[in-house]
Amino acid sequence: MRQGRRLVRVFLLLVAVWALGCSGGSKPARQELDLNIRAGALPADKQLIRAGQGDDIVLRWSADEPITIHLHGYDIEKDLKPGAVTTMWFVARATGRFPITRHAHGEETPLAYLEVIPR
After folding, report:
1. pTM for this predicted structure
2. Which residues contact 91 (CB under 8 A, 6 or more apart)?
């Protein structure tokens, strides 16, 4: 009888650990980043943006020349003007790796990547 109860407790403990692992154990977060494009590029430490699925993302963009930026996969496009800050806000619903490109002078150039990890 004791062994049966012990097995039930072990089973319930394993189910609880599995359930925590499946949920990721984390809640959506809010991320706010300032991204300054200079001479057509972002600093190396800003070229990869990582987020969890469901995160609230606020990207504040500035540039030293007029350009258009495009977040692929989310189909968000913003026009940037020198001396102004332009905000890009979205909830990271789609998972995967998405390029953020700049459109200027008839060319499309990768600026950064957004990686959204499933929860």
Report:
1. 0.76
2. 28, 54, 55, 56, 57
